[in-house]
Write a structure and sequence with these properties.
Helices cover about 70% and strands about 0% of the residues. It has a two-stranded antiparallel ribbon with strand order 1-2. α3 runs parallel beside α6. The protein starts with a helix and ends with a helix. It is a multi-pass membrane protein. Its main location: membrane. One of its GO terms (biological process) is electron transport chain.
Amino acid sequence: MAKGKSMFTVFSKGILAENPALRQMLGLCPTLAVTTAVTNGIGMGAATTFVLVCSGVVVSLLRGVIPTNMRLPAFITVIAGFVTLVMMIVEAYLPELNAALGIYLPLIVVNCIVLGRAEVFASKHPVREAALDGFGMGVGFTVALVLMSAVREVLGAGTFAGIPVLPDFIEPMTVFVMPPGGFAVLGVLIAGSVAVEALRRRADGSETKEAMLPEDACAACGMCDLKEREA
């Protein structure tokens, strides 16, 4: 049961507690640039998730083979291979999505989310955990993109996934499909994610330990008393 719980923790942390876009502030270029339509958010999220999972698995498999001083070039090479595969598939079967995502699809190679998870997690954990971590981070990134693109598309264009949803008497606010609108929506989503995470921590009691004041933490340590007794 404990192992199952830890596996769930590895997966779920990327959805809210360590959401790449909303909590770690990673991958903000595509987050702001492509989220003018829900289809763009889904496409970018799915592509990034695929690369995260596949590159994490390969990096984990090779973690004992790759020399320490060559790990970053090796990680980038692995990531670039899967990004190239995604680009070929999208260009062949989803040309409209390929045109909408533009340069941001190949730039997944240098996306801090993918390279960061390869360096911080996949290179230090078994394959199963690396795959779950990549999938969880990808799902969290996709959720952030879809939420952001849904708000921007509905308010800025009056549509959802290309389908008109606003009544004729409501004029869309085009500022939401422009950069200022993107920053505004991102800020609101970040604030919302922080509030939800705070409520979750308060509910399970984990906030109490983290909120301990420095003097309380010092008193709880007891190292000073131990040193005095040894002296």
